[in-house]
Write a structure and sequence with these properties.
By secondary structure, the protein is mostly helical. It contains seven helices and no strands.
């Protein structure tokens, strides 16, 4: 039987930045608690999605602060906007997530002027994709550890 604290740990870890191994640790907790993947993966996906939406909204709101607004305007160079135009939201939230995690990508997208309405669908699909990838990697890793 899975406890409230196990689920709270899974949700909290899923909302932790990827570079701190949050979602993969959440999947590890779920696997160790013998939670069915059909229940675990949607919870990890939804928690990461909510965290991403909150972070993207905060990044957009932060540009209303004078010093951040001036810094962001100075950083918007033709090279940075060309990179964003080339890869777009979908590329950023798939390839970028694999490299640095979703948090820096979301902040960069919002600071480059991408609106929230263009972010929510790629963010949802990227969280679902990476939840499955984390599950596969962690389960294979745990299987390898069991064979030692």
């Amino acid at each position: 039987m899975t406890t409230f604290w196990t689920w709270l740990s899974i949700i909290g870890l899923s909302m932790t930045p990827n570079l701190i191994l949050g979602p993969s640790a959440a999947v590890g907790v779920g696997i160790a608690a013998h939670i069915d993947p059909w229940l675990l993966l949607p919870v990890v996906t939804l928690a990461g999605f909510v965290e991403g939406l909150i972070l993207a909204w905060l990044a957009g709101e932060s540009t209303h602060i004078g010093i951040i607004h001036r810094w962001v305007e100075r950083m918007r160079t033709p090279r940075s906007t060309a990179l964003a135009d080339k890869w777009g939201v979908w590329g950023g939230l798939t390839i970028g997530n694999a490299i640095v995690g979703q948090e820096p990508i979301l902040v960069a997208l919002r600071w480059l002027g991408v609106e929230m309405r263009h972010i929510w669908l790629p963010l949802a699909l990227a969280n679902a994709l990476f939840a499955v990838i984390y599950y596969a990697v962690v389960s294979v890793g745990l299987d390898q550890m069991a064979n030692l």
